[in-house]
Amino acid sequence: MKAAQRGDQRALDALLKKHQSRIYAICRKLAGNDADALDATQEAMIAIVKGLDRFDGRAAFTTWSYRVATNACLDELRRRGRRPDPGLPEYEHADDDYLGGRSPRDPGETVSAQLDVDDALNQLPEEFKAPVVLRDMAGLDYAEIAEVLDLAPGTVRSRIARGRGRLADILAGNQNPPDERQST
Amino acid sequence: MTDNTDAFDELVSRYLDAEATADEIARVESDPALLARADEVRAAMAAVAAPVDIPTADLDRIRAAAIAAGTTTPAVTDLAAARVRKLERRNRFLAVAAAFVFIAVGFAAVQNLSTGGDDDEATDASASSESASASEMADSATADEALEMFTDDDDMAEEEADGDMAEATAESDMAEADDMAEEAADEMLEEDLATEDGGGDDAAAAERAGIDVLPDQLEPVASIDDLLVVIDEAYADVVDAPFLGEPFFAVCSEVIDLIVERQDDRTVNVEQAVVMVADELLNVIVALDFAGQRLVITHPIDDCAVSSVVSPEPP
After folding, report:
1. Which of A37, B67, B82, B240 is 20 to 30 A distant from A170 in Cα terms?
2. What SS3 state is found at B287?
């Protein structure tokens, strides 16, 4: 870390290489598709490299880098301002299966399952999606997530709970959250 | 679902995170609806936690690009260059400030000459104005007044004192201008040192820029020969390069050794870029000497120890 902060490119490369997969995984879940995730990951890495001299070691590097990466990823997605399109070529096969009426939760259909999760996550408001991804995908605890997102721990718990609940409803086939369901 | 859905989901979430109290655990496990909800939420958590395919090659590429983009304007300040810049700025400010003071003094002197005898003038102006006013007064005044003018020690002393005060004022003005100039130069240096990105980084990079003709990341090529063609084309118009003072900034030691071995102390510019050569990600270094001769070195992006000279061929 110190060597990387001093400008040692080899140390910097090793540091980024160690964390790049997890940073990408977070961005992939937040972005919902590979292309946007790679762009967001690159923006996140650039932000980490440029901000490394400001890292003072008070927080764990993991927590700090996730904070930088999450903010960079969300900023990139806001700039793009679009949702992942289930009709993209990479999802064609999964789309056919999904449209064939098969259960979206069939554990044997990996691509379809990923599409479902991407689509479901994409329907979550940003304030729920980020804490859920950091908790359930990245495995951060509530205190770390609070630090990453600059929120109170109680707010983090509440948003994770509500985000998980909404996600469960969407994946179970209840497309509208309970408080938005219209009577027919 | 009832209006208590959010409250139930918070309870279920605590239960699944193993943060529920004993009572809460008992409540969930005794309620089929809550257990069913827990199953649904658990499935959602598992779906989010499902691993994603990691595109390692793409990540290696963008990692290299991020390092290149983030370190071409280094966060570490080149202190020697910063000191030179500070000195140059200070000298410029002092010159301008001195010019203003000189103009002000000169203007005052001219005014004194034209009005004839105002004692509140600067040193040079005082000296000339004294003689001018003395001769004028000698012409127009009575003999007694003229005698008084030239022999009155008190008057002379007073005029000398006034002249001294004017001189002191002028010197004080110069010193104040000097202090203001130095303070301004220090502020500009502080801004320089505090700059991290954006326009400030661009200004810093421009100030220390020598030769920078290669992009941070070159287009992929099939072979080293193709890479050398790209470098030749990029450097086609480069005749010479200004000496940066620290050409080896951010260059790893193994590469420095190779450069010094070939160019001795003639190196004036070193430029780096990242390039994919036949699916291998390399760092390419171009070292230019004062005769315009180029030395091209490459190494794998994460292994400086296997640096090798690719051009010119070893004798």
Report:
1. A37
2. strand
Backbone angles phi, psi at B211, to 5 degrees: -95, 125
Amino acid at B295: L
Cross-chain Cβ contact A161/B14 below 8 Å: yes
Helices B5-16 and A153-171, axial angle in degrees (round to 10): 100
Q: Which of residues 223-282 of B touch A (CB under 8 A)?
A: 250, 252
Which residue of chain A comes nearest to B10, CA vs CA? A161
Range list of H helices, chain B:
5-16, 22-29, 32-49, 56-71, 79-115, 123-140, 143-151, 153-194, 199-208, 224-234, 253-263
Q: Count A/B contacts: CB-CB distance under 8 Å.
A: 144
* Nearest-angstrom CA–CA distance, B35 and B41: 10
- Residues B119 and B163: their CA atoms lie apart, in Å, by 8
Residue A81 distance to chain B (closest CA, Å): 22
Omega prior to B312 cis, within 30 of 0: yes
Q: Which residues from A are below 8 Å from B49, CB to CB?
A: 136-137
Count Cβ atoms within 10 A of the Cβ of residue B221 and give its class: 0-12 exposed, 13-18 middle, 19 or more buried: middle
Cα separation, A104 vs A173, whole angstroms? 8
What's the CA gap between B80 and B245, in Å, rounded?
8
Q: What single string gives the DSSP state of each residue in A166-182?
A: HHHHHHTT--S-GGGPP
**pLDDT bucket at A25, cuts 50 / 70 / 90:** very high
pLDDT digits (tens, 9 = 90+) for B71-111: 665 444 444 555 565 566 667 767 777 777 777 777 777 77
Beta-carbon count within 10 A of B116 CB: 11
The helix/strand/coil state of B121 is coil
- Contact predicate B283/B217, CB 8 Å: no
Of A70, A97, A136, A123, the residue nearest B44 (C-alpha)? A136
Cross-strand pairs, B277: B221, B280
Indicate whether B125 pLDDT > 80: no
Substitution target in A136, A176, A180, A182 with the highest count of B β-carbons within 10 Å is A136
Q: How far is CA B186 from CA A184, B87, B89, B303, in A?
A: 72, 10, 9, 41
Q: In this structure, what token pair is assigned to residue B135?
A: 């001769």
CA distance B83 to B242: 18
Q: Are B214 and B273 in contact (CB under 8 A)?
A: yes
Shortest CA gap A120–chain B (Å): 10
pTM listed for this prediction: 0.48
Phi-psi category of A109—alpha, beta or left, where left has phi over 0 and alpha has psi -120 to 50? Answer: beta
Cβ contact, residue pair A25, B52, below 8 Å:
yes
Q: Which two tokens stand for residue A31?
A: 């972005």
